[in-house]
Amino acid sequence: MISDKVRPHHLERKAILYVRQSSAHQVLHNRESSALQYAMRDRLTVLGWSEIEVIDDDLGRSAAGGYNAPASSGWWRRFASVKVGAVCAREVSRFARNSRDWQQLIEMCRVVDTVLVDQETIYAPRHGNDRLLLGLKGSLIA
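The structure assignment produced for this chain is given below.
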């Protein structure tokens, strides 16, 4: 196990990898970003997950067109009923469009003991310092 924040009970559950680009132009012309985001699957594998679900069905959907980020649309609420050990994105702040939705996501992950993983670190919302860092990241969401 690479991190002490990832416990055996997290690895028994699946991990969700969220891949997103805001516009069709980005999807077509910024392939490096897509490749880097999909490569986060390798990070999850190294961390010990064998079951990884990739959510990329909103690639190229802009917020200007009425798109809601995952936390806004509520797909993450299934953490409460589906056994999810980790939620991953290259940048975890992509999960929400506003601080309120971000705080709800962090709280849900804390309650069901789901870690958040990005390119920089692993956040365990049950740990006070990680919750503080996630809260700061959320305060930067416009």
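Interim note for the steering committee: Helices lie at 8-11, 24-29, 31-38, 40-47, 70-73, 99-112, 128-139. The two ends are 35 Å apart (CA to CA).
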